Amino acid sequence: MIEVKPFLYALSFLTRIPVPPALTASHTAAGEDWQKSVAYYPIVGAVIGLLLWGAAAMADVLFSNLLAAVFLIVIWVFLTGGLHMDGWMDVADGLGSNRSRDEMLRIMKDSRSGAMGVTAAILLLLVKTAGVHDILLAKHGAWLVLPPVLGRFVLSAAIRYWPYVSENGIGSGLRNGINSGHLLAYLLVLAAAAAWWKSAAGLAVVALVLFISWQFAVYLNRRLGGLTGDCYGALVEWTETVTLVLLVLLQAWGK
Asked: Angle 118-74-16 (CA atoms, 0-180°, nearest 5)?
């Protein structure tokens, strides 16, 4: 059963979708509802995905495939307010500096973006745009639901299972809001949906995305001694992009 307030906290934090004004206060005032919100991140991903699917249907009527793909990327970034992209850029700046752990963490906290961060953002958006273009070209707009869902599932799992570097960061306490039972339930739903959608091929895509993203989390943890809020954002962007690429490959192999 969905608890309304934690879900709305998740929706307000991860998207620009309007929520009741009472939930615009700082998360530190939300207490238990804020902690519980992490269990609803994959559902927020489904909301984003369904909106993208609807936008894809509209864009398919109005634009060429290339312009439609760019339009959908703009909608995608707008829906999330660039929240995860900011983390992706900060992680690129930090890791790209090739310095000590403490120095990398200091660079990641800097609000200014460096050359590595900007380059990483451009490359990521190019790959995403190309992936969306090929999916639209194949008339598989419904596939756009999967990347946001998997991205936020990985986010929830990372919060649950990886150590959080900062003691007072925005992710503090979120681990208490989700357990293995939540994640197992989501995983079973994803597996069932993938099997119904593309049988073994669908299951293989989901399993491969989760494996690749988990290896990225392993790498981040090894370099930084834990994960930060920026790492969480980078994981979402990475997972969404990997999912798009594998969906395109699945389409190519299925021809």
From this structure: 100
Structurally, how many domains does the chain consist of? Answer: 1
- How far is it, in rounded angstroms, from Cα 190 to Cα 192? 5
Range of the domain at 205: 4-253
Closest CA to 231 of 184, 161, 126, 178: 161
The secondary structure of 11-32 as a DSSP string is HHHH------GGGGS-GGGTTH
Crossing angle for the helix pair 115-137 and 229-253, to the nearest 10 degrees: 30
pTM score, whole prediction: 0.93
Residue located via tokens 């707009």? 141
3-state secondary structure at position 227: strand
pLDDT digits (tens, 9 = 90+) for 53-73: 999 999 988 999 899 999 999
